[in-house]
Recover the amino acids of this structure.
């Protein structure tokens, strides 16, 4: 579904990605892991067209999408879901969702999709006429994911859905992500909560210094020594250094 | 002595109220104070205020959309007045309008003039934005970094547009003889028809803008782009197109306001800069970047200015708007509506 080949990109003149390669299969959940500043979010931003791709290619559903305007990429069915704080705080929940379906042409589809989102997240239905600024952290994350689902995407890319949330809420959100996949969507999830992400995903990539360092089945990655040391709190690592 | 001293919201509001009461007390002691003059001041103040409000809404819209203050906005006001005047004169000089509307040629011509000022200034604004402002922001990845260059560009544009108008219409004052009928009497106040047109058109357009922003899909997009260009991109809004729309609407409003003001005064090449400063003061008073705030700020500045000019001294008319701005900035730096909705978490 999504193939990234030798992706080189960055901000301004600072190069962050040094030739990353990735593949996301249809209807799978893929986790992209890595520490701070390794280029996880940069890959997502390049995919959704917010920053320019300097070199390499991004192929979505058989089409090259690198350096297309962001709204065209959304129309093609690839949507990035931002972290929970990136909502429109001065608008109601319903308006936020309507904005998610901005590319939809018919009003009927828009209303159907709002119903669909409320099925995933009943909490949003209770709060639909509230301003987004009054929502709690978990509800904001739900709103962001819901907004991403509004435009009938084929694939969504989640940027740290567990950031700054209580474990119980993270579990709830991850259950919903699994449900979304079962309904036929492909999911790429960027996470710092490595254990949770690997439990959810089928396949994992670990990024380091702008290139993919380790990849593999998520069950294997969970027991991989280098991943364990780097990201799962390997315990003795610092002592050995 | 005042280190660490901070005004709370409640204290701010109390101080604003005290200032208002002192001001009202002062003008009520004026020898000119009576019910007749008060009614007149109220109506004129609101009329002037809606014009300031319309221009200020444009400034606020551009500020939220492009993150810069458009210092050439007054010139769009001036060009709008000239467009309206030119269209009106063209229609009145011809025979056709008398043949079709023998009784109502004056206001039909005026409405057509208003319409053309609105549309032509809107298109002109889009053109200016596409040709001159867009290349400046391209470098920052498209409207994420605007910076100083675009502000200087605004000043330059102002000079260029002023001189363009100078070449086309020469620097003499052009009278705008809109034939709108005799003054009417509203509640004991004799009001020229031009003021009534300002009131009615101003409120209609402000209402239409409110409807557009809150009830239509395109308005929703405009509000989204005004809040965040990155998130708007991610939900599939064509951000560059919407920036053009925002600039176009703002310039169209300024052009319309220009044609509304034209008949009450004269149309001069230099009429733009003072309205820019007063509209700027209105936007600051109402809370910069807030659209309802811009309209309310416009009313406040209009009423304050008119009442000061009438009850205190008419010779310093243009200074009062800035006096009010300074007072509001001292007491309530966010303006009336300038509190952004904060995230809870």
């Amino acid at each position: 579904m999504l193939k990234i080949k030798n992706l080189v990109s960055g901000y301004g003149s600072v190069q962050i990605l040094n030739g990353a390669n990735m593949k996301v299969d249809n209807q799978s959940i893929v986790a992209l892991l890595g520490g701070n500043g390794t280029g996880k979010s940069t890959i997502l931003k390049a995919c959704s067209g917010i920053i320019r791709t300097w070199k390499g290619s991004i192929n979505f559903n058989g089409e090259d999408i690198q350096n297309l305007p962001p709204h065209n990429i959304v129309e093609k069915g690839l949507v990035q879901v931002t972290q929970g704080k990136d909502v429109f705080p001065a608008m109601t929940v319903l308006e936020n969702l309507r904005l998610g379906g901005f590319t939809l042409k018919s009003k009927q589809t828009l209303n159907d999709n709002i119903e669909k989102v409320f099925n995933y997240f009943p909490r949003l239905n209770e709060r639909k006429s509230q301003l987004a600024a009054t929502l709690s952290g978990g509800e904001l994350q739900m709103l962001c994911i819901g907004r991403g689902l509004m435009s009938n995407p084929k694939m969504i890319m989640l940027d740290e859905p567990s950031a700054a949330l209580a474990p119980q809420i993270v579990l709830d959100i991850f259950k919903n992500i699994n449900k979304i996949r079962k309904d036929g969507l492909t999911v790429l999830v960027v996470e710092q909560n490595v254990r949770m992400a690997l439990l959810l995903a089928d396949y994992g990539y670990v990024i380091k210094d702008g290139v993919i360092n380790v990849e593999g089945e998520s069950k294997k990655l969970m027991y991989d020594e280098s991943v364990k040391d780097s990201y799962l709190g390997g315990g003795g690592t610092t002592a050995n250094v | 002595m005042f280190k660490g001293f901070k005004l709370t919201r409640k204290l701010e509001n109390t101080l604003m109220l005290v200032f208002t009461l002192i001001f009202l007390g002062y003008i009520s002691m004026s020898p000119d104070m009576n019910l007749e003059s008060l009614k007149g001041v109220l109506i004129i103040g609101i009329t002037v205020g809606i014009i300031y409000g319309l221009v200020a809404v444009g400034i606020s819209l551009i500020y939220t959309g492009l993150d810069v203050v458009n210092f050439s906005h007054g010139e769009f006001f001036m060009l709008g007045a000239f467009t309206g005047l030119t269209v009106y004169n063209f229609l009145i000089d011809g025979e056709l309008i008398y043949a079709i509307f023998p009784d109502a040629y004056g206001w039909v011509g005026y409405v057509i003039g208003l319409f053309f000022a609105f549309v032509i200034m809107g298109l002109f604004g889009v053109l200016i934005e596409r040709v001159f402002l867009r290349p400046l922001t391209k470098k920052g990845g498209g409207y994420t970094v605007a910076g100083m260059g675009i502000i200087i560009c605004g000043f330059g544009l102002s000079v260029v547009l002023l001189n363009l108008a100078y070449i086309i219409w020469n620097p003499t004052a052009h009278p705008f003889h809109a034939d709108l009928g005799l003054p009417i009497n509203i509640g004991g106040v004799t009001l020229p028809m031009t003021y009534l047109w300002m009131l009615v058109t101003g409120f209609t357009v402000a209402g239409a803008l409110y409807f557009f922003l809150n009830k239509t899909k395109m308005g929703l997009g405009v509000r989204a782009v005004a809040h965040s260009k990155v998130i708007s991109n991610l939900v599939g809004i064509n951000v560059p197109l919407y920036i053009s729309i925002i600039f176009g609407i703002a310039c169209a409003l300024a052009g319309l306001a220009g044609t509304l003001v034209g008949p009450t005064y004269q149309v001069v090449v230099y009429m733009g800069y003072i309205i820019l400063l007063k509209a700027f003061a209105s936007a600051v008073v109402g809370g910069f970047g807030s659209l309802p705030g811009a309209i309310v700020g416009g009313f406040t500045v209009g009423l304050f200015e008119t009442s000061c000019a009438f009850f205190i001294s008419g010779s310093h008319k243009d200074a009062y708007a800035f006096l009010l701005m300074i007072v509001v900035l001292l007491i309530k730096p966010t303006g009336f509506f300038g509190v952004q909705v904060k995230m809870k978490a």
